[in-house]
Design brief:
Elements (H helix, E strand, L loop, with lengths): L2 H31 L8 H13 L3 E3 L9 E6 L2 E10 L13 H16 L6 E8 L8 H7 L8 E3 L2 E3 L10 E10 L15 H15 L8 E8 L10 E10 L2 H22 L2 E10 L6 H13 L18 H5 L3 E3 L2 E3 L10 H6 L3 H23 L1 H9 L4
Parallel strand pairs: 3-4, 3-5, 5-11, 6-12
Antiparallel strand pairs: 1-2, 2-4, 7-9, 7-10, 8-9
Helix pairs in contact: 1-3, 1-10, 3-10, 5-6, 7-10, 10-11
The structure holds zinc ion.
């Protein structure tokens, strides 16, 4: 397909999304006004499915064993790449939409509905995948394991932020629950009969603190004590803590996790208590598909946006999008919805997620995502580059 046709098709899609602007803003505000936490996103999922169905998409719900997950599909005129836009829509407990997932939902729906206008002339398949429970639930990990992303060639979403960032790393993350079982006794009159489970937890924290000097500077280990005893005059017979272990590299993250487990095992040995280690989930490290990211960059810049110059190895969190990025070509760019120092999971962020600037970002993201999807469907050379790309 020649460049004029590509440009023309992009402009049709951009105009279609511009026409959807009021509907997308209304949806993002409705989700914002009815915050639903992980796996409880009944209304958000329903509204998105209704909008996709009205746009001619075939909707499957639930998918992957998650009640509030869905997949909306629209087939083009023949066989070609399958491009998926991913929609998040969960809120944070108490805070509400402090991560702007309502804008992610609006942008991915907008991209899907805008693309639908031209799919009749294109070879390929479009999907809008509803991925609940990003905030700690690892919804995409569950969907990935259930095979929901099988057959998807390209998966894309945007995330709101203070800065506009084409790509940055996301840390691999392991969640470890540690329990110690000791023996209760009167803490004053018969302490020699007790086994102190709290001491084991405290020793675990100390050993981990000793580890920090000798680990890669990108790694993070952070934990809380979830149970420390019942009364000062009883030797605690039970204690528990929850740790996140994170690192840039998946293998290194597992290595570090094993060392954290050894800290707990050593504490059990030292105190004579019994330790139980339970893995409560893992996120992989994020792999950005660079040829796909470059296409997104050109498209967002064509809308007058500029990217901030950001060190992709600094100020990192983790995301369940990472697990998708190990299965298919993926991007997870950020668009600014407020001041550059906007803190995630804050009341200021909640306000930004319902602001005019947030809505501008959502519409721009919808257009740039859709135009990038068009690049994938219309440029076979780019698609070949994307599918053969292997991230470092
Ligand atoms: Zn988020």
């Amino acid at each position: 397909m020649n460049e004029t046709t590509v440009a023309k098709t992009k402009s049709v899609v951009r105009e279609a999304i511009q026409a959807l602007r009021p509907q997308l803003i209304d949806l993002s505000l409705r989700i914002h006004g009815h915050p639903e936490t992980q796996f409880q996103e009944v209304l958000a999922a329903q509204w998105l499915c209704e909008a996709a169905e009205a746009g001619g998409f075939g909707v499957q719900k639930p998918v992957g064993g998650l009640e509030t997950a869905f997949r909306a599909t629209y087939k083009g005129k023949g066989d070609g790449p399958t491009v998926a836009f991913l929609a998040e829509y969960d809120a944070l407990p108490k805070l509400g939409h402090g991560c702007g997932h309502n804008l992610i939902a609006g942008a991915s729906l907008g991209a899907a509905l805008g693309m639908q206008q031209v799919m009749g002339t294109l070879a390929g398949t479009l999907q809008l995948i509803g991925t609940p429970g990003e905030e700690g639930g690892g919804g995409k990990v569950i969907l990935a394991q259930a095979g929901v992303f099988d057959g998807v060639d390209v998966a894309m979403m945007f995330h709101p932020s203070g800065k506009t960032i084409l790509w940055k790393h996301a840390l691999a993350r392991r969640k470890l629950f540690i329990e110690f079982h000791g023996k209760s006794a009167h803490a004053a009159s018969a302490p020699e009969k007790g086994i102190n489970a709290l001491d084991a937890t405290l020793l675990t924290f100390q050993s981990i603190n000793g580890l920090r000097q000798h680990m890669d500077s990108s790694a993070r280990i952070h934990g809380i004590i979830t149970h420390g005893g019942d009364a000062p005059n009883i030797v605690p017979d039970y204690s528990a803590s929850l740790f996140y272990v994170r690192a840039l590299d998946d293998d290194y993250c597992d290595e570090l996790l094993e060392r954290v487990k050894n800290c707990a095992r050593a504490a059990a040995l030292a105190t004579g208590s019994r330790v139980e280690l339970e893995m409560q989930g893992a996120y992989k490290s994020l792999r950005t598909n660079m040829p796909l990211a470059q296409a997104f960059k050109a498209n967002l810049e064509s809308l007058g946006w500029q990217f901030d110059d950001v060190d992709p190895t600094k100020s990192l969190g983790s995301t369940d999008m990472a697990d998708v990025s190990h299965l298919t070509a993926a991007i997870h760019p950020y668009l600014s919805i407020g001041p550059s120092d906007l803190a995630g999971h804050s009341t200021e962020y909640v306000a930004a997620a319902a602001s005019e600037r947030g809505q501008q970002a959502m519409i721009a993201a919808a257009k740039a995502l859709a135009m990038t999807a068009l690049d994938v469907l219309l440029r076979p050379a780019l698609f070949a580059e994307i599918t053969t790309y292997r991230s470092a």
